[in-house]
Amino acid sequence: MEKKRFTASNVLQNKTKFYSLTMPSDVLTQCCFVSSRDEDPIMGFQRTLDEKRALEIANYIDNEQGTIPSAIILSAQEVADVEMIGRGRTLEFMPHPKAFLILDGQHRVFGFSKAKSTLRVPVIIYVGLSRKEESRLFIDINSKQKGVPSELLLDIKRMAEYENSTEESLRAIFDLFYSDPNSALIGKLSPASKSKNKISRVTFNNSVSPVAQFFGDRDIDELYIILNCYIKAFMYGFFKENNIEEQLCNSIVFRALFSVFPEVASKVKDRFGPEYSVDNYTYVMSDMFGKISLQKIKKPGNSYKALANHFSNSMKSNFTL
Fold first, then answer.
1. Does the global pTM surpass 0.85?
2. φ, ψ at 212 (rounded to 5°)
């Protein structure tokens, strides 16, 4: 087996040295391994790989012409026999299947192995680490780094032109709720990040997206008015009436509220036709408002479905023949 050679740079950070280089993805996948705690409970420390996620990465590379510029972080093992040659500018190693332990980027490497295309991949290689040092470095990497918040990703999807039709509609409706002075949610929304006592774009989308199947061919302004009147009816008929307006921004409560929207809207249409006004919503929900448990709203728990069932049950009349 012949050694592989790649141009590399020496990097020194706080007395710790590592090497920075690029490597063809097919070479990388042939000489890396993952130590999973499921496979090696005593010495392993990484999680089991998710094949679905790896296939998504492969598809991104092969079919979407994607680029993955972030570096794979490796720890050289003894069988790699790593040496710096050529005046310290070339890194040489044996391409053994257990040459490098992956400290960060295992799903990317797994994805590379399933891709048809070959990419040049940035790589960081540590040499001479003990298992203790590898474990600590793994913890440091995964505890110090933070992914981009989902709220921010949703907020910039429009600029990237990555939105599907439902996401586009939800973004436009959210933006109207955020900016319209007549909005029931004015001052209660946070577009690009999580914020205490505010509804994030992620919570809004998760709550309203199941309702999107009922949108039909109505335009965004119509949909906004229909949903805004619904929230206003809930706000004035229940939350403000009971002085718990802040609970509307609780993610469990907000999702439960929209879970029963189809049932409420259906009753409005049966009674008044497609006239979704605050008064018509209030008429349909007035009995429900009197039966909702304040304790369940103040402490909604972790299940929006359970709270939605409570709303739905509270809407049922006590009619007997």
1. no
2. -60, -25
